């Protein structure tokens, strides 16, 4: 859901107001929320209050590995236009069509959040004059597609609590990613 | 005699519906999006597109002119933005960029704006379906000549993830003077946005809306078909229009004299004022339009007030104003409205 105030950023704060027994709900992004007056709760937005960190601790996640994972994600760079994943996060903007393939795994959840869906069902191009793709790209795309497939299976397995299968998928994905890195 | 612009059409001017708009975003394969293109590559891309699309007028049946946006000055670009031929980003962009504009200004194709192509069809009537067909034909015409960046899962790829998939924005412009004056309006807009559409004021400054013009458009572009998007926007626009009509007929029944009084006062100011600010002009034109719609006043000749509202925006006024009035837009605006607003029957 988009922030109801700026309608640009993703809403990540839900604010429930009860005035005279009437309950209204607001969905805001942290940027707009900071500008609103929440009385003494405003302090939460003034400082970099590490809510995310707090939650991560609660769920028993090791915040160090999480941070290093984040760091690694931000360093993913599109080989075609040199847009880094951190640039994409900052500007909500892709640099070239290839960015979608490169950042697919990292941002597919975000796209789903913004759009409510992640699979196109509408019109398709009538014409494609098809330029012959190089073999290298072919191989890379195949790898990327397999990783995509395995990741969705991994997610399913975790949801179904089939941890053995999940571990197998995880290892396979790791191996494919290593091979993918050789292309970069 | 030049062809009438789409916003000068004087038929069907008695409705809440002011305009329909279909916009498609498309990008070519093997080119970074415009923001990542060097000025040189950008220029090359624009040239390639302009060349390839030379015959678009023949395909469409209207003649097109090529507007080299990068060589226009700020006011001229702003004027195009106010007439909605280009968007805000197009008006602000400094580098290479071009516009293919049909002579009635109903079709505008921006080349190398935020995306490689922004195909837009507009009309002064409630006809999203027809515009989608038109835009679809232009889309196919382009696609016949250039390969699009298309992804099996994500559909048409765009610079912003908020456009990906169909790349379609379907929008209807409504005149809601009664509804928007009511206390419940914000609540209604919030309610409606829950269904996946955005309602926003078109002209105004800051939080103020001038002239009660609102545009209803889809929020989502991925995972829904073009037909579904259009049906949704149409349904929500119809709902708002119905509420407007209902409130209007209630007001007419209970406060007819008050409404007449407002309409005639507004007309009087527009007719005789020597200076008009944008806010004044928009407010009074909105009142007069509402009055005319209800038959409270009748013009001797037909007029498109929405078109007039566009022409009195600052940048357009700057272009239209005679040389001696360029420094006094309020004066220029008042005399332009005096000239364009017909007498009453």
From TrEMBL, chain A:
Instruction: Please give a single GO biological process term from the UniProt record.
Output: stress response to copper ion
Organism expressing this protein natively = Fusibacillus kribbianus
Name of this protein: UvrB/UvrC motif-containing protein
Q: One Pfam family this chain carries?
A: UVR
Give the PANTHER family listed for this entry: PROTEIN-ARGININE KINASE ACTIVATOR PROTEIN
Q: Where is this region: Disordered?
A: 117-140
Q: Which residues form the UVR domain?
A: 144-179
The record's SUPFAM superfamilies line, in alphabetical order, gives: C-terminal UvrC-binding domain of UvrB (SSF46600)
* InterPro entries from the UniProt entry: UVR_dom, UVR_dom_sf, YacH
Keyword Transcription (UniProt): no
| MF annotations from Gene Ontology | cadmium ion binding; cobalt ion binding; copper ion binding; zinc ion binding
What domain of life? Bacteria
Where are the coiled-coil regions? 140-179
Automatic annotation (TrEMBL), chain B:
Q: Which InterPro entries match?
A: Arg_Kinase, ATP-guanido_PTrfase, ATP-guanido_PTrfase_cat, Gln_synth/guanido_kin_cat_dom
- TM region positions: none
Q: Kindly list the biological process annotations in GO that this record carries.
A: phosphocreatine biosynthetic process
Coiled-coil region(s): 233-260
User: Which positions are annotated as binding ATP?
Assistant: 19-23, 118, 169-173, 200-205
Q: Please provide, alphabetically and separated by semicolons, the GO molecular function terms listed in this UniProt record.
A: ATP binding; creatine kinase activity
**Keywords assigned by UniProt, alphabetized:** ATP-binding, Coiled coil, Kinase, Nucleotide-binding, Transferase
Ranges for the Phosphagen kinase C-terminal domain? 16-247
One GO cellular component term: extracellular space
Query: What family is this?
Result: Belongs to the ATP:guanido phosphotransferase family.
The protein depicted here goes by the name ATP--guanido phosphotransferase
């Amino acid at each position: 859901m988009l922030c109801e105030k700026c309608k640009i950023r993703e809403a990540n704060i839900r604010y429930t107001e009860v005035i005279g027994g009437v309950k209204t709900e607001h969905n805001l992004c942290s940027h707009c929320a900071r500008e609103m007056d929440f009385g003494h709760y405003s302090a939460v937005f003034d400082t970099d209050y590490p809510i995310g960190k707090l939650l991560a601790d609660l769920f028993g996640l090791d915040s160090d590995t999480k941070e290093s994972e984040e760091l690694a994600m931000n360093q993913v760079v599109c080989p075609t236009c040199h847009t880094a994943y951190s640039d994409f996060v900052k500007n909500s903007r892709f640099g070239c069509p290839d960015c979608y393939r490169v950042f697919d795994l990292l941002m597919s959840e975000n796209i789903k959040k913004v759009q409510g869906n992640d699979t196109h069902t509408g019109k398709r191009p009538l014409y494609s004059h098809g330029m012959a793709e190089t073999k290298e790209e072919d191989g890379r795309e195949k790898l990327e597609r397999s990783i995509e497939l395995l990741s969705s299976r991994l997610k399913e397995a975790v949801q179904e609590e089939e941890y053995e299968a999940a571990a197998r998928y995880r290892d396979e994905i790791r191996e494919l990613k290593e091979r993918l890195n050789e292309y970069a | 005699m030049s062809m009438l612009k789409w916003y000068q059409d004087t038929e069907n001017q008695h409705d809440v519906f002011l305009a329909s708009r279909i916009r498609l975003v498309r990008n070519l394969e093997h080119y970074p999006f415009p923001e990542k293109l060097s000025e040189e590559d950008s220029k090359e891309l624009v040239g390639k597109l302009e060349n390839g699309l030379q015959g678009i007028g023949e395909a469409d049946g209207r003649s097109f002119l090529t507007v080299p946006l990068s060589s226009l000055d700020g006011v001229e670009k702003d004027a195009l933005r106010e007439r909605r031929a280009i968007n805000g980003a197009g008006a602000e962009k400094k580098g290479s960029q071009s516009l293919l504009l049909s002579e009635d200004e109903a079709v505008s194709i921006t080349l190398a704006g935020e995306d490689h192509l922004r195909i837009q069809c507009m009309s002064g009537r409630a006809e999203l379906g027809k515009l989608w067909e038109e835009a679809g034909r232009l889309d196919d015409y382009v696609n016949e000549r250039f390969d699009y960046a298309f992804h099996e899962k994500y559909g048409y790829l765009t610079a912003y993830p908020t456009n990906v998939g169909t790349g379609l924005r379907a929008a209807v412009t409504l005149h809601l003077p009664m509804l928007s004056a009511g206390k419940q309006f914000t609540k209604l807009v919030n309610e409606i946005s829950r269904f996946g559409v955005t309602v926003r004021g078109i002209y105004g400054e800051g939080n103020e809306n001038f002239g009660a013009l609102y545009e209803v458009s889809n929020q989502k572009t991925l995972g829904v078909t073009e037909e579904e998007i259009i049906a949704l926007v149409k349904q929500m626009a119809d709902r708002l229009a119905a509420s407007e009509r209902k409130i209007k007929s209630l007001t007419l029944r209970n406060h007819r004299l008050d409404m007449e009084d407002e309409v005639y006062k507004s007309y009087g100011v527009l007719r005789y004022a020597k200076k008009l600010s944008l806010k004044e002009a928009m407010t009074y034109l909105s009142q007069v339009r509402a009055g005319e719609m209800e038959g409270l006043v009748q013009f001797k000749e037909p007029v498109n007030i929405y078109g007039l509202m566009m022409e009195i925006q600052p940048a357009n006024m700057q272009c239209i104003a005679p040389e001696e009035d360029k420094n006094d837009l309020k004066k220029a605006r008042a005399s332009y409205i005096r000239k364009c607003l017909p007498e009453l029957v």
